[in-house]
């Protein structure tokens, strides 16, 4: 396989895996702020890209917000982590041969 194709394939796998890891990180819940009457919960790791704000008052709505910037940064973070793991695995398998 051509080296350029292999590099593109590795980058594509890292980007797709980073996107999946970012979506899975939504299950990580962070209590960002809690004071008298206000509760803000963030979802995502390492950055909270989905935020739920609730004013603790009868009949007050829950406000949801989404940050594309933090979402993209999380994808970049997880893609970098996965690409390093792929590079280490390739180096380890090449040394064994």
How are the SSEs placed, and which strands pair?
Layout: H1 3-24, E1 29-35, E2 38-43, E3 50-55, E4 62-66, H2 68-96
Antiparallel strand pairs: 1-2, 2-3, 3-4
* SSE topology string: HEEEEH
Number of helices: 2
Mean pLDDT: 89
Q: What would you call the shape?
A: elongated
* Class inferred from helices and paired strands: alpha+beta
Tell me the radius of gyration: 19 Å
Main sheet: strand order: 1-2-3-4
Description:
- The chain is 53% helix and 25% strand.
- By secondary structure, it is α+β, with helices and mostly antiparallel strands.
- α1 packs across α2.
- The model has no long low-confidence stretch (mean pLDDT 89).
- A four-stranded antiparallel β-sheet has the order 1-2-3-4, with no helix packed on it.
Quick description:
With 97 residues, this protein is of the alpha+beta class. Helix content is 53%, strand content 25%. It is elongated, with a radius of gyration of 19 Å.
Brief descriptors of the model:
4 strands, 2 helices, single chain, 53% helix, 97 residues, alpha+beta, elongated
